[in-house]
Amino acid sequence: xxxxxxxxxxxxxxxxxxxxxxxxxxxxxxRVGGVDEDEYNLGISHFIExxxxxxTKKRSALEIAEEVERVGxxxxxxxxxxxxxxxxxxxxxxxxxxxxxxYDMLTNSVFDTAELNRERNVIIEEKKMYEDSPDDVVFExxxxxxxxxxxxxxxxxxxxxxxxxxxxxMIVDYVREHYNASSMVVSVSGNFEEAELLSMLEDTFGTIExxxxxxxxxxxxxxxGTNSKVMDIQQTHLCLGAKGVKIGSDDYYDMTIYAxxxxxxxxxxxxxxxxxxxxxxxxxxxxxxxxxxxGAFYIYSAVADDNIxxxxxAIIGEIERMLEGITDEELTKAKNLMKxxxxxxYESLNSRMNALGKNYLLLGKYFSEEEVLDGIxxxxxxxxxxxxxx
Length: 390
Hints:
Layout: E1 2-6, E2 12-17, E3 23-30, H1 44-51, H2 61-70, E4 74-79, E5 84-91, H3 95-108, H4 113-131, H5 134-146, H6 160-165, H7 168-178, E6 184-190, H8 194-203, E7 236-243, H9 252-263, H10 269-277, E8 281-290, E9 295-303, H11 308-322, H12 328-345, H13 349-363, H14 369-377, H15 381-389
Parallel strand pairs: 2-6
Antiparallel strand pairs: 1-2, 3-5, 3-6, 4-5, 7-9, 8-9
Helix pairs in contact: 1-7, 9-12, 9-15, 10-11, 12-14
């Protein structure tokens, strides 16, 4: 059962008790990410995520890592276009330590200049790693095309110029603006005592002050176009993109089922046509990418250089064939696969914690298992066809 409480400073705490496990996963979600940046400070949200592990007024970077590992816990974080999340998984008896460490990191980090400069080099190496991965590169390129000039097209890791520009004062100012109670949600899934948890959170996160930052994003224009980059690799990685749907919108499940039928499994139309029938690729997939204000839809594959035109023609042929309609069998299969994927993911505490925290942070609500499965069940052939036409 999911419960929502609010701390004295109005930070929502969304909790799901899972009695049959011996662990608990806690995540701190902040409404700050790539869309909140501009050309000057691009990548700063991701940079700060790294720096939160590099020492506080109470703990050095090594002490943070050692304290977590000493009690058998694991910690991590991630930055996306819309949010940043810090999370720890621990044995249920070590939850107080998890709360203390997360609170210390998010409120007492010192952002030491020497550590900052070392981490700058780490991030630049991380960027090189992505740039050596053509599938990562092509998805950055297509996002930039679909959302050209809009914050949703921002590269989360930043550019070399912006990464080198970020300094201690910029980080302190950015944290002061975005790391506050107004931007925060706490999500917990696992085995814990509710009253004890809320008491711990009141004494720590309940003391964080509110802020006044409001995210306001303009509508994203869309103009068809192409882009390419030459790399010394053995295949051409290609991605076709278009405008999609918003997360939480009425046609979210329709879009997801459409993607499933078109390119979401080994029996999907794209896989059967492009790989099985024509033998052009190892993998081909259709991917919805949904945000609060907007969304995109991508089709990705990697083929031999001299097969690019043949592959694109085959992909577009299947997109057009979807306009002729789908079968009852295709619809049922796609629904069952989506239900199974959701159900399987819900067996993970990390997935449960993430889904609850992300949805509550971005949409102000959470979705029960029954709501999700019901939403999938309500998709019809007609609603999928409407998405195909769009």
